[in-house]
Amino acid sequence: MLIPPYPADEAVRLTALRSTYLLDTAPEPFFDDITRLAAEMFEVPIAMVTLVDEERQWFKSRVGQRWLRKFGQSVRWSRWVLR
User: Fold this and answer.
1) What PANTHER family does the annotation carry (predicted)?
2) Predicted structure pTM score
3) Each residue of 34-55: b (16+ CB within 10 Å) or e?
4) Which of the two residues, 73 and 49, has the higher pLDDT score?
């Protein structure tokens, strides 16, 4: 799989992510409501709010899927989205 390079502003993005203090926190109704709304609006069975740091993609909220909590860096397809 082709993995894109990190964006030029990756350090800024990671600093902003860390400043939210959301990584590795418990589920919150606010995020669960947004995730549920997205699933309903797009009429899909699975929706997620994910946070991507330098080592993993971590799921803050999930609808329709409960078995997965995070992906390691080797499965970071979301780096394409960050570009």
Assistant:
1) GAF DOMAIN-CONTAINING PROTEIN (PTHR43102:SF2), SLR1143 PROTEIN (PTHR43102)
2) 0.72
3) bbeeebeeeeeeebbbebbeee
4) 49
